[in-house]
C-alpha cells in the first residue's frame, strides 16, 4: 500500500516538475543592451547593460533557480534567487536583469558585466544548470544606447535597434513590436468581406470532423455487429451465416431489449399489494430500549 | 441645522438612493421583458429551467440604483457579489461545466447506432455561417459577427463561451437571444419543417436503431474527444468536458460522479448561469441598437439552421437506398437544443402518423448538433481570436 502511495507521489512530482520545466522552456532572451549611456536607469539611478527575458507562454512562469551566464564553461554563474515574488513572469510579459556585476543590489542585478569591445554570449539555463533554455551572441561594436533585439517578442530574427523609427526603438520591459489591432480579424475583414470564405472553410472543417467520426463509428459498429452475431450463432448453435442474417442476429433493436427489461421489471418488481406480507410464521420482535416508547417520552418532573 | 432639517436631509438623501428616484424608461422596459420571460416559463411552460432564472436575473439586473454611490451591488461593479458570480460567465468557465453535465446526461447510443446522422448535425451548423455572412453585411466586425452567428447553433453555453472570448461587450444580448430562441423552438421550428417537407416525406418510417454495446458507448467519448480536438483544439474546453461527462456516464464505474455532474453540479451552474446572464442585461448596457440587430440575426440564424438540417436530409435521401431513407422531420434536430428540437420532430411526426415515433432517431442529429456547434465554435475561435 505504502509503495503504491509512494509511486503515485513520485509520479505526481514528476508531472509537476515536468509541467514547470515545460513552462520554463518557453522563456526567451528577448533584448540586450550592452552600452548604456543615456538609456534606461535602474532603481539606483545607474545606467548599466541590461538583459530582457520574455515569457512566450500563456501561463505564469517563475524564473527562480534558473541561471543567467555569459560564460559557456560556467552555466551556473548567476543563480536567479528564490524567495522574490517578482521572479514570477506573467503570461507574455518581460523581466529585466541589470548586467552590472552588483548582485548585492537585488535579485535583478547579475554578477557579471557585458564587454562592448567583443562578442557577448549570454545563456539562460534551467534550474538543473544543464539544460540550455535560450542563448544569444550579441555582436561586438553595437553603438551606445542601441540594443540587440528580436524583431517580434520571443520569436524571429535578431536586429540592432535604436533611436529612430526605421531601425526600431529600444524597448526595455515592453514589447519589441507594438500590436494595436488583431491581425487575423483585419485579414478576414480585408480578404473575406462577405464571409463566404469563412463559411466554406468552417463548414468543411465541421463536416470533416463529423465525417471522420461517422466513418470510424460505422466501422466500429460493423465490428460490434459481427462480434454479436458470432456470439448469438454460438449460443443458438447455428453455423450457417445466411440463417443468422435472416434471424437478424447482432442487429437486435434496442426496442427488443427494452421490452424484455420491462417484462422482467413487471414480473419481479411490481406488486399488487405493497409493504404488507402475509405469513403463517410467528413474527418475533426482539426487545430493544431504542424502540421502547418509554424512552421517547419526556417524564413529568417529580414533585417532592 | 435643526433636528427636523437633519431628518429631512437624510430622507431626501435616502430617496435619491431608491430605485424610484433612479428609474428610467429603459429600466422599466427591461423589467417588462423579465416579467414576460417569467410568464412564458410558468404559464406557457417554455423552457422554465432557463427562462425562470434568466427572467428573474433580468429583474435583478434592472433594479435602478444610484450608480455613482459605490454601493457595490451592480453586476458590472468590481467586487460586488453579482460581479463575483458573473466571473463564471465573463471568464467562460460556466459553459464547460454545463457541458460536463450535458455529457453526463446524454445517451449517444442513437447516434452510435446510426452514425450517418452525424452529418445531419453538421449540416445544421450552416445556420451559424449564414448568419455570419449577414452580420458582416450589416456592418459587424468579423469577431462580433462570429459571436452573434453562434446563436444559430442553438446552444446557450457555447454562445456564452464564444461571445465571452470574441465580443464580451455583446455577450448579454447574445446569451439572452440564444436562450430565448432555444425556448421558442416549439414556435419557430414547426412551420419551417412543414414548409420544406411533403406529406409523403413526413410519414417515412425509419428502421429501429440497433442496440449498442457498452464498449461502443465507452469508445465514443474517447474517440470523439481525440478526433474532434485534434482537428479543432480551440474547442477543447467544451468538447473536453462534454466527452468527459459522457465517459463518466458510460464507464459504469463512476455512476456517483456522473450523477453529480448531471444533477447537482449542472443544476447549480444552470442557476448561476441563468441568473447572472439575466442580470447582465442592465438597461444601460443592453438596450442599444446592436441588441436589436443581434436578436434579428439570431432569429435568422435559427431559421437557416433548422431549414438547412431538413434540406440536407432531403438531399441525403436521394443517395440512400429505399430501406434506409431518413425522415426529413428529424433534420431540424441538427441544431443542438437538446432535447427540445428532437421532441418537436417527434410531435410533428406523430401529427401525420400516430404510430411513427421519431424521438430516438431525432436524438441522433440532436446530439451530433451539440458536437457540431462546439466544433463550429472552436473553428470561429481559432480563426478570429
Explain this structure to me?
The complex is a heterodimer of chains A (304) and B (385). By secondary structure, chain A is of the alpha+beta class. Chain A is built from six helices and eleven strands. Chain A has helices spanning 2-24, 183-191, 196-236, 241-246, 254-268, 293-296, and strands spanning 27-33, 49-55, 61-62, 67-69, 78-79, 88-89, 94-99, 120-125, 132-138, 147-152, 155-161. In chain A, the strands form three sheets. Chain A has a five-stranded antiparallel sheet with strand order 7-2-1-10-11, with no helix packed on it. Chain A has a four-stranded antiparallel sheet with strand order 5-4-8-9, with no helix packed on it. A two-stranded antiparallel sheet of chain A has the order 3-6. In chain A, strand 10 (147-152) and strand 11 (155-161) form a beta hairpin. The two termini of chain A are 64 Å apart. Chain B has 385 residues and is mainly alpha-helical. Chain B has one domain (94-384). In chain B, helix 6 (94-105) runs parallel beside helix 16 and helix 9 runs antiparallel to helix 10. Chain B is elongated and about 95 Å long. Chain B starts with a helix and ends with a helix. At the A-B interface, helix 2, helix 3 and helix 5 of A face helix 7, helix 8, helix 9, helix 10 and helix 15 of B.
Write a concise keyword list for the protein shown above.
heterodimer, A: about 300 residues, alpha+beta, Immunoglobulin-like, 5-stranded antiparallel sheet, 4-stranded antiparallel sheet, B: about 375 residues, mainly alpha
Short summary of the structure?
Chain A has 304 residues and is of the alpha+beta class. Chain A has helices at 2-24, 183-191, 196-236, 241-246, 254-268, 293-296; strands at 27-33, 49-55, 61-62, 67-69, 78-79, 88-89, 94-99, 120-125, 132-138, 147-152, 155-161. Chain A folds into 2 domains: 18-180, Immunoglobulin-like (Sandwich), CATH 2.60.40; 197-276, no CATH class.
